[in-house]
């Protein structure tokens, strides 16, 4: 069974292109059918703007940056409307039970496998609001009294509401995508970087995790630990285990720190 992101909406052109290539191969190999023969006309549905669900981010006071932020949000809404038009006019890849594989699109859905429950969030921005990189979803895996969250590419998280989602879930194990410190001053400005640090502080302070793996975008440049120093110091002070993936798996520091 393939549990995957919906390739028909809340998706950008790059994601859509790769999805078409991927499912063409999957349907051919496991179902012996051509994807082109299975594409469907889009159903009539309303696409909710994910920004409208961000109560905390919408109400946050950005001070002198507020004017610029409003300009960016306006452009983002215009971009989203164009995305909606495209989703409603393109043929859709269907969910399908093939001869040797089942394809399911999972945003906002829940599945049970024996004693294990797997939940998926709805579409989340890939970083900042209206990020042109597209959308992702977070995964929550539960069994008995244990819970793991894989945040996916939230870049920090940057958005306050996404941090609150993690606080509310209170996972025992948290795999969290960190900020792109290697893009600081370019695609990641200081305002949004400070948002990340404040959000992660709350997560470290309030989530009763046994371990938090803070990785993916984070350990890609040598100064990542210095730039996020206050988080590591806070974790040490609170005796909370915050590690990059290589530390957790092999007991070694990030590769970039050993170059």
What is the compact description of this entry?
By secondary structure, the protein is an alpha/beta fold.
| Helicity range | 25-40%
Q: What series of H and E elements makes up the topology?
A: EHHHEEEEEEEEHEHEHHEHH
* Number of strand segments: 12
What does the oligomeric state look like here? single chain
Biggest beta sheet attributes: 7 strands, mixed
Quickly give the structural class.
alpha/beta
Number of helices: 9
Low-pLDDT ranges: none
Across the major sheet, the strand order is 4-5-8-9-10-11-12
Kindly report how far apart the N and C termini lie: 40 Å
Rg over CA atoms: 20 Å
Apparent shape: globular
Q: Any idea how many domains? A: 2
- Average of per-residue pLDDT values: 96
Share in β-strands:
15-25%
Give structural notes:
The protein has helices at residues 13-31, 55-59, 66-87, 160-169, 190-206, 224-227, 229-237, 245-250, 255-258; strands at residues 2-4, 96-97, 102-105, 110-113, 116-120, 124-125, 135-136, 139-143, 146-150, 173-177, 211-215, 242-243. It has 259 residues and is an alpha/beta fold. It folds into 2 domains: 2-102, no CATH class; 108-258, no CATH class. The strands form 3 sheets. It has a 7-stranded mixed beta sheet. Helix 4 (160-169) packs parallel to helix 5 and helix 5 runs parallel beside helix 7. The longest helix is centred in the first third of the chain and has 22 residues, at 66-87.
